[in-house]
Design a protein that fits this description.
- The protein is of the alpha+beta class.
- It is 35% helix and 20% strand.
- The protein is built from 2 helices and 4 strands.
- The strands form 2 sheets. A two-stranded antiparallel ribbon has the order 1-2. It has a two-stranded antiparallel sheet with strand order 3-4.
- A hairpin with a 3-residue loop joins strand 1 and strand 2.
- It is elongated and about 45 Å long.
Amino acid sequence: GQLASSTTALEITRMGLLTGTAAEITPVTRINKKIVGNGKVGNITKKIMSEFTDIVMRQNEDYEHWLTGVN
């Protein structure tokens, strides 16, 4: 079933992250007490986190049109 294949995919994954309004970009280093990859934040996740921060802090003009200021 879908749950079984989802669980299997999670068990063999080497890197993961969660996204959300409050979580923004959150690295996944463990799933059900099992270490994901080497248990450290991966380089791709670090890059995504850095790019995201630059965008929301208006340090990347290429994506400023994505943002709406709040007064």
